[in-house]
């Protein structure tokens, strides 16, 4: 069932990818930066919201009038800001939804990543409540509907004796205080919790990407500005509690559940919402999965260089005081509750070198389930058997391309993540004559299952990041074929053959 | 060409945002209909009479527990009926709230009725009697389309308010 959902979702992203790949480079493709795009849209919401706050009046009549003033009289700035506020918050719902689906279908929510997944759920709730309270503040007919329906939802929780919804049925029961309370919730209370929630959401990530590429930000802002100018957000008629509006222009991004309150009942809507949230919360453990062993530090070869700490995308490695009495002050320490066994720390370890001739190949940090020594053995096994030129393909285990590689019968070595491959292994493969060329196939930047595998690998091969590839390696014999993980046909065989031809020349 | 494709993608994104932000519109009330809302909380009568303590009984009680009468906490459920002419719009017996059934009974009901003239009758029984009403009110009014008529029970005047 879950595997089928994953396949369906991947097919959906495959469909989305084609037009997106034509329009954007990887670094600027919104599909590669969905979380960061959400934060960017929330920035727009915050800044435009500050402008609206300056003119907003927290009273029954003042609320509507002040928003109308911004929309009609100050259309050139206040009206644009209002529209921007609304459209950016709507856009954030699209990016959030895609972000959740993407992390789910590419299996980036299980194991020790549960914390990031689970802490995202209250964020979604908070953003919806923020949006709903925002509509409330306009105090037009839509606000009237939102207020009554929200209160009906609250009334169905059996903790209040008197009906809250009853307060929104006649004007004499509504006070200015109410708008002060809503304004506090929308402008201060919820945003503070939201900021804290975002911090918690990325808390376990090392170097979280909270800003998308500048060009992507600028283009998205322009798109929202153009939309605001061409199609400004306007209010309905002012709320009149003695009347019920017949037809409303609902914001379906935030209010899609509200019609269900009338169609079902408030109680069933709660069952629906809480049910969905519960299913999402327990998803990382459904079904339970065998946990891979965390990275292991061997003190005999750990000199406390800190490269593994810098490169670990999940903050699972930290430097701790030395325990073996040697002259080094610190050693690497792995937190098994944070480690997701990607092996990027092994790729960062300068002692993970296959050239070692004496003793066992045991680097300072290694994965018990996919050891550096086993990688070397796999390279030797996949090595030249007489044919020339011979290419060894290195591929990430999570990559869709692995199946294609196996089907095509290519010589290949599987790694947990491309970032697990120390550059010295590329040198070893070529200089020891195991292959004439090395083809690295992994996930495109922004789509690495372990966040930074592709980026660190590129930087190590380009000699910009430790440990660097030795200068003696002829780069014409090294090829990289990053691919978005949702690609159905990655053209791996074509890439292989093209690389083979370039080697023959 | 890539720039054109990029602009097109942003335009599609903005169009989706703009469209779903207001469209399709949602019909809340059928044409030529109005809403009648019955909204209030009311505590029914206590289920029994209070019994005065005798002096002898009071003397037996610790000083801090002494009170003039022993009253049962539980209250009767509240029976409500709302009619438009001969047509019953709402009829329900609401239990008192609280673990000890000593709280108010609450009602929040919104009913869609056709607009036009209505002879409305609302009655409430809170004394546990099987028939009849302790409080009632009749009114004839003309409901405009989209009108939201609210019926409450005012505890101070002990009567229904229809607005």
Descriptive account of the structure:
The complex is a heterodimer of chains A (505) and B (163). Chain A is an alpha/beta fold. Chain A folds into two domains: 34-285, Cytochrome Bc1 Complex, Chain C, CATH 1.20.810; 296-504, no CATH class. In chain A, 51% of the residues lie in helices and 7% in strands. Chain A starts with a helix and ends with a helix. The longest helix of chain B is centred in the N-terminal third of the chain and has 19 residues, at 2-20. Chain B has one domain (2-162). Chain B is of the alpha+beta class and 163 residues long. Chain B is 15% helix and 44% strand. The interface between A and B is large, with 45 and 41 residues. Strand 1 of chain A pairs antiparallel with strand 1 of chain B.
Set down the secondary structure blueprint:
The complex is a heterodimer of chains A (505) and B (163).
Chain A: H1 2-23, H2 34-55, H3 60-73, H4 75-105, H5 114-138, H6 141-155, H7 176-201, H8 214-230, E1 247-248, H9 252-255, H10 258-263, H11 266-282, E2 296-297, H12 307-311, E3 317-321, E4 330-334, H13 344-348, E5 365-366, H14 372-381, E6 391-396, H15 401-408, E7 412-415, H16 423-431, E8 437-441, H17 453-461, E9 478-480, H18 492-504
Parallel strand pairs in A: 6-7, 6-8, 8-9
Antiparallel strand pairs in A: 2-5, 3-4
Helix pairs in contact in A: 1-4, 2-4, 3-4, 4-5, 4-8, 5-6, 5-7, 6-11
Chain B: H1 2-20, E1 26-27, E2 33-42, E3 51-52, H2 55-60, E4 69-70, E5 78-84, E6 87-94, E7 105-114, E8 116-125, E9 135-143, E10 148-154, E11 159-162
Parallel strand pairs in B: 2-10
Antiparallel strand pairs in B: 2-7, 3-4, 5-6, 5-8, 8-9, 10-11
Task: Please provide a brief summary of the model.
The complex is a heterodimer of chains A (505) and B (163). With 505 residues, chain A is α/β, with parallel strands linked by helices. Chain A has helices spanning 2-23, 34-55, 60-73, 75-105, 114-138, 141-155, 176-201, 214-230, 252-255, 258-263, 266-282, 307-311, 344-348, 372-381, 401-408, 423-431, 453-461, 492-504, and strands at residues 247-248, 296-297, 317-321, 330-334, 365-366, 391-396, 412-415, 437-441, 478-480.
């Amino acid at each position: 069932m879950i595997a089928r959902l994953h396949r369906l979702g991947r097919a959906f992203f495959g469909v989305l990818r084609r037009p997106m790949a034509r329009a954007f480079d990887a670094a600027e493709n919104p599909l590669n930066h969905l979380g960061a795009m959400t934060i960017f849209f929330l920035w727009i919401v915050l800044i435009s919201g500050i402008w609206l706050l300056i003119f907003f009046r927290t009273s029954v009549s003042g609320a509507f009038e002040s928003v109308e003033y911004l929309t009609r009289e100050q259309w050139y700035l206040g009206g644009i800001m209002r529209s921007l506020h609304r459209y950016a918050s709507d856009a954030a719902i699209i990016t959030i939804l895609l972000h959740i689906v993407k992390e789910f279908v590419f299996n980036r929510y299980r194991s020790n990543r549960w914390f990031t997944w689970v802490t995202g759920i209250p964020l979604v709730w908070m953003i919806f409540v923020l949006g709903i309270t925002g509509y409330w503040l306009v105090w037009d007919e839509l606000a009237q509907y939102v207020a009554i329906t929200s209160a009906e939802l609250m009334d169905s929780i059996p903790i209040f004796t008197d009906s809250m919804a009853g307060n929104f049925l006649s004007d004499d029961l509504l006070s200015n205080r109410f708008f002060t309370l809503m304004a506090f919730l929308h402008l201060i209370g919820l945003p503070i919790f939201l900021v804290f929630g975002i911090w918690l959401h990325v808390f376990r990530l090392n170097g979280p990407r909270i800003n998308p590429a500048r060009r992507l930000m600028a283009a998205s802002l322009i798109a929202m500005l153009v939309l605001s100018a061409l199609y400004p957000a306007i209010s309905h008629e002012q709320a009149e509690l003695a009347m019920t509006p017949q037809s409303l222009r609902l914001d379906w991004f935030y209010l899609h559940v509200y019609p269900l309150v009338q169609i079902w009942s408030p109680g069933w809507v709660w069952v629906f919402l809480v049910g969905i949230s519960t299913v999402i919360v327990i998803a990382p453990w459904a079904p339970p999965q065998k946990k891979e062993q965390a990275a292991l530090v061997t003190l005999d070869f750990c000199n406390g260089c800190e490269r593994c700490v810098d490169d670990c995308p999940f903050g699972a490695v930290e430097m701790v005081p030395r325990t073996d009495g040697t002259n080094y002050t610190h050693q690497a320490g792995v937190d098994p509750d944070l480690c997701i066994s990607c092996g990027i720390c092994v790729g960062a370890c300068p002692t993970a070198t296959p050239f070692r001739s004496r003793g066992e190949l045991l680097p300072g940090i290694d994965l018990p389930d996919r050891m550096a020594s086993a990688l070397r053995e796999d390279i030797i096994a996949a090595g030249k058997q007489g044919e020339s030129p011979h290419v060894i393909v290195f591929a990430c285990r999570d990559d869709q391309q692995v199946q294609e590689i196996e089907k095509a019968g290519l010589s290949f070595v599987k790694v947990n993540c491309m970032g697990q491959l120390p550059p010295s292994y590329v040198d070893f493969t070529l200089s020891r004559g195991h292959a004439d060329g090395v083809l690295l196939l992994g996930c495109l930047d922004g789509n690495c299952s372990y966040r930074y595998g592709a980026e660190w690998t590129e930087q190590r091969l380009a000699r910009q990041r430790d440990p660097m590839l030795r200068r003696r390696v002829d780069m014409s014999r090294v090829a990289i074929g990053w691919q978005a993980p949702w690609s159905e046909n990655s053209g791996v065989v074509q890439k292989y053959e093209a690389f083979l031809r370039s080697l023959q020349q | 060409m890539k720039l054109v494709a990029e602009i097109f993608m942003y335009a599609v994104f903005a169009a989706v945002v703009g469209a779903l932000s207001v469209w399709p519109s949602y019909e809340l009330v059928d044409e030529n209909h109005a809403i009648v809302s019955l909204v209030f909380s009311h505590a029914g009568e206590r289920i029994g009479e209070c019994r005065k303590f005798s002096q002898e009984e009071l003397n037996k009680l610790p000083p801090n527990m002494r009170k003039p009468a022993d009253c049962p906490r539980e209250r009767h459920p509240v029976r409500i009926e709302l009619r438009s002419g001969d047509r019953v719009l709402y009829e329900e017996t609401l239990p008192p709230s609280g673990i000890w059934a000593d709280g108010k009974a609450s009602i929040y009901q919104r009913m869609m009725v056709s607009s036009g003239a209505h002879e409305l009758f609302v009655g409430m029984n809170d004394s546990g009697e099987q028939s009849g009403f302790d409080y009632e009110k009749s009114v004839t009014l003309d409901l405009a389309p989209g009108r939201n008529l609210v019926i409450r029970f005012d505890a101070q005047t002990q009567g229904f308010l229809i607005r």
